Prior knowledge:
This protein is mainly alpha-helical. The chain has ten helices and no strands. α7 packs antiparallel against α8 (181-191) and α9 runs antiparallel to α10.
Amino acid sequence: xxxxxxxxxxxxxxxxxxxxxxxxxxxxxxxxxxxxxxxxxxxxxxxxxxxxxxxxxxxxxxxxxxxxxxxxxxxxxxxxxxxxxxxxxxxxxxxxxxxxxxxxxxxxxxxxxxxxxxxxxxxxxxxxxxxxxxxxxxxxxxxxxxxxxxxxxxxxxxxxxxxxxxxxxxxxxxxxxxxxxxxxxxxxxxxxxxxxxxxxxxxxxxxxxxxxxxxxxxxxxxxxxxxxxxxxxxxxxxxxxxxxxxxxxxxxxxxxxx
Length: 258
């Protein structure tokens, strides 16, 4: 049993240089992609599927969660005489934590599986070999637009989630007491510090990079059997969730320590 565990660990570290090289190639091709006109259709379609089509779902979830947190938090904080802390609670829970994480999970469910299974199907059907034989770099043509599309989508969806999650309670406040709406916005603007906004943006960018790199990596990491296609999708989801949780915990620790 110990021997099996040791061989598994050694085998896992054997792939580290390849993974680092893949990440480096992805970043290099993505920066070069910005200066060229090729593969823009893939980038536009990726933004359409990952960003535009997810807007209604993000709006509903963010508004519902922001309103629920506001109602429950306001009631609890009023009971202990700390009603002014509701704005800090909303900014931390919605903008700092729930926004990036929930958006990332939704993008994983909608896009990571789709990207991994699509690329895996292209590998199995020998389309990747056709690209290489024609002198087309698969990293530049297939990975870069998906990397940029998913990363930008998570970034903008996070901003959209924070907007809807913070505006939802304002609507409830307007219905209950229109006079207090200005106080709500002034309190919320005071609670949204530069540190909170910067950390939320950093999370969204890192989460988008993790999702896109993991999904494309496992999409290419198949052999010849069609039964490996759903396995690639499952692996992309599992590894993306694990990576996001680890990075999220690290950033939160740094946020409260630094």
